[in-house]
Amino acid sequence: MSMMEHLDELEASALADLEAAAEPESLERWRIRYLGTKGRLKATMPMLKDVSREDKPAVGKRLNAVKTTLESAFEERKSRVEAPGAAGPALDVTEPGMECGLGRRHVLTRTIDEVIEVFGRMGFSVAYGPEVEDEWHNFNALNIPDDHPARDPIDNFYVNGGRLLRSQTSTVQIRTMERVKPPLKIIAIGRVYRPDTHDATHFSMFHQVEGLYVDRNVSMVDLKTALFQFARAYFGPGAEVRIRPSFFPFTEPSAEVDMKMKIKGSYQWVELGGCGMVDPNVFEAVGYDPEEWTGYAFGLGIDRIAMRKYGIADIRWMFENDARFLRQF
Ligand code: DAH
What we know:
The structure is a single chain. The protein is 38% helix and 23% strand. A 7-stranded mixed β-sheet has the order 1-5-6-10-9-8-7, sandwiched between helices. A 3-stranded antiparallel β-sheet has the order 2-4-3. It is built from 11 helices and 10 strands. The protein is rod-shaped and about 125 Å long. By secondary structure, it is α+β, with helices and mostly antiparallel strands.
């Protein structure tokens, strides 16, 4: 056998043996056998002297190539054998599956669903409106004239084309009355936007539930009864409602609403929003006859309801999407 053939044979059998070495001990035996100081590769060196002078450069080169091939094959094999888990099969079908965490509704979504449910039982259906509004629905139709300070660009998110992100869900009162004839009984729930500086109780986006009931002979007693029934159903039998005189352009008379709700075991008063009897100007704006129709309206902050009901101290936590927070509810 020529020296060249001998090297080919050595390389082939070394690589085949290497492939069969599956654990560190057999790998080490392989290394000693082929690459060790008394190994088979070293043993070929003395044979070089028997190679003819003109063949020597080619054979020497081949010898070096075999050495490099075996060394790098060894390193490669070694790293695979020693890799974690390399000893077992690549896929262990007996391993238990990864636990799939159960999702849940966001605490606000849950609060919204609960509020819809309670008002639903009282005969309110749900109405929707856009979050990008025009000034007619956000202001004028609600009896908020052009020069009213509430329309200041500092206090609203105006976008192009005389539109703005709605600052209140009262817009949906107008949109609904423009569409349907009285009587009607609706709530509208959703996001509203105001450029407030963020802190524990303020966020530039929050949620409101708006209520509107229009019929003949609706009175302030009906309004207070509805709010009271909601408070009882949602916050428990010890809940109460208190209304204080106030002003809103779209109601006359207007009031602030406080509800007594259970917070950490005891009942406390929490300011939740505004309410009142629909202003005749609002009815006129939507084409209802104010001589025939009467109505009440209210708007409550849902984020605040959720915060007080679930003991959440900072409104920002609700919008950070931190699973450690969300998982608690
Ligand atoms: N839209 C008012 C606000 O965001 C809340 C409000 C007050 C809504 C009185 C009403 C209402 O429907 O009658 O501050």
